[in-house]
Amino acid sequence: MTRIKRGYIARKRRTKIRLFTSSFRGAHSRLTRTMIQQKIKALVSAHRDRDRKKRDFRALWISRINAIIGANKKKIDSSYHRLIYNLYKRQLLINRKIVAQIAILKGDCLFMIANEII
């Protein structure tokens, strides 16, 4: 009986996985079975952390706005909650990211906006 050699498809699949995991350390970049497991784990973590990053940035913006308002109670007659509530009530399309940037770069401008909408 003649010898049958395996095709190239399995090798091509493993090479593709090896290229993905080439920067991993130890057996995670050398052994096929652990490469596959680490690739799955990396993709799951990336998918999860894309949502987590949005959450973390929103918390950062809120804490920045709150810190600027808390440090300057004399200039502004409001709290973070009241400021955001009045922005929505007046239908001003300024989100927390923009308000945080205004607070950091131009603090006086934030106080003018806050006192104007109140």
What does this structure look like?
Keywords: Chloroplast, Plastid, Ribonucleoprotein, Ribosomal protein, RNA-binding, rRNA-binding. Binds directly to 23S ribosomal RNA and is necessary for the in vitro assembly process of the 50S ribosomal subunit. It is not involved in the protein synthesizing functions of that subunit. GO terms for molecular function: rRNA binding; structural constituent of ribosome. Belongs to the bacterial ribosomal protein bL20 family. The protein is mainly α and 118 residues long. Helix 4 packs across helix 5. It has one domain. The protein is rod-shaped and about 90 Å long. It is 70% helix and 0% strand. It starts with 8 loop residues before the first helix and ends with a helix. The protein contains 5 helices and no strands.
Please sum up the structure shown.
With 118 residues, the protein is mostly helical. It has helices spanning 9-20, 32-71, 80-89, 96-105, 107-117. One of its GO terms (biological process) is ribosomal large subunit assembly.
